[in-house]
Amino acid sequence: MLAKFGAYFITHSNAVLTDAAESIVNVLASSFAFYSIYLATLPKDENHPYGHGKVEFFSAFVEGVLIGIAGLIIIFKSSYDLIFPREIAQLFEGAVIIGATGIVNLLVGYYLINVGKKHRSLTLEADGKHLLTDAVTSAGLVIGLLLIKMTSLNWLDSVISILLGIYIVYNGYKLTRKSVGGLMDESNVELVKTIVGILQDNRQDAWIDVHNLRAQQYGADLHIDCHITLPWYYDLNKVHTEISDIDKMINGNAERTTELFIHADPCLPECCNYCKLQNCPVRQEAFHREIPWTVENATKNKKHFQ
């Protein structure tokens, strides 16, 4: 940030000021991200029975809003200077400084994204993507500064700044949209597809069907609730054993810690035609065919019928 403001003071370039202003957002957003990651690591307590992981969505939301505000300010400031231009100088020196900061942001951004994916941290991924956005704008800015120096068309300074501002606003919107979806428990189709795939690949004959499946993410942890249809004559100990087996199977195959809340439903005569359970003492209809579990039928709140 200090390097970019130094570049602005020697060039008086609007476009350089644009990049420097976004760096203020970087510092503020990273500070908030640091605190939110600390909160996300706190254990569950009486007031937060699901843990503190959702603060990461709020952190990403704040970062997205700050990015968007910075972009809008840049657009308005550059539009004003396009009408009332000012003298700019030492563009080559400014381009060198901006280019160096862009390389640093590029490396740190990729590092944060990789660590964020490894630990399932939305905050780290958001901060890394923010820095990558900054690196892209810096690269465009370097090209713009060199173009202005070669052509002496100073009005390009404000035009480039406006274009960068629009790009920054767009990235702020994408980040905010993702965080709002997480805060409102928006369905994560890919996540549900993964869980349904694990259940389908490891299904047992007694697990007649799985329905009303929902998944929520709290920080790095997952919370899944669903209904499973079991033979109606199973006693409570047998039902508990089957549900425990599902819990162990999910946590043994999923890539992160998963907490399951499973509601057991008794089977109905209509289930017999797709139930594979051998030697069932209450079967009223022969097995016809298995119904594969998919996102479509596993998420509906009703038993599977042919």
Write the layout of secondary structure elements.
Layout: H1 2-11, H2 14-40, H3 55-83, H4 91-118, H5 122-151, H6 155-183, H7 189-201, E1 209-218, E2 221-230, H8 236-253, E3 258-266, H9 295-298
Helix pairs in contact: 1-2, 1-4, 2-3, 2-5, 2-6, 3-5, 3-6, 4-5, 5-6
Description:
The protein is mainly α. It has helices at 2-11, 14-40, 55-83, 91-118, 122-151, 155-183, 189-201, 236-253, 295-298, and strands at 209-218, 221-230, 258-266. Helix content is 61%, strand content 9%. It has two domains: 2-183, Cation efflux protein transmembrane domain (Alpha-lytic protease prodomain-like, Up-down Bundle); 189-298, 2-Layer Sandwich (Alpha-Beta Plaits).
Q: Say which CATH homologous superfamily of the largest domain is assigned.
A: Cation efflux protein transmembrane domain
Average pLDDT rating: 84
Order of helices and strands: HHHHHHHEEHEH
- Structural classification: mainly alpha
Poorly predicted regions are none
Q: Order of strands across the widest beta sheet?
A: 1-2-3
Brief overview, please?
With 306 residues, the chain is mostly helical.
